[in-house]
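B., you asked whether I could sanity-check this one before it goes into the benchmark set. Here's the sequence:
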Amino acid sequence: MPQPVDRTQSLEQLERQRWPDPAEDTTPMVKNVHELRRRPIGTLEPHELARLIGQDVGLPLLLPLAVEILRDTAPNQAVGGWYDDDLLYAVVTRGPQVWAEAPDLARNLKETAAMLSDLSRYVKQEVDDFLASLPEGI
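And here's what the prediction gave me:
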């Protein structure tokens, strides 16, 4: 399992890498990603984690946090509560190489996915693709 990280620190602090400010004429997405990298990771909302993960930013640090959130909220989805499909989509659509490097995290996500029902069609397909891409034994 990944080592716990200090959630009071930003990705910039944890990765020890400060990105230069984006160009003035860059897209709002790029500006937002830069801004989110500067915030403590413990303050990031699920939709903000989804944005960063969807852009493959800070995956070793953010995926464990995202899987934890998904796992903690999965029981609520089963009883009709709200579930963050955007975060789930961002997480399960990361490439197989990401999960090959983090098999325990992949196993945790697989267990979480097994708790879910009534997913939207497009997210269900991505979850099924994620599960099919896992190596035997995970």
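One thing to flag: The longest helix spans residues 59-78. Otherwise nothing jumped out at me.
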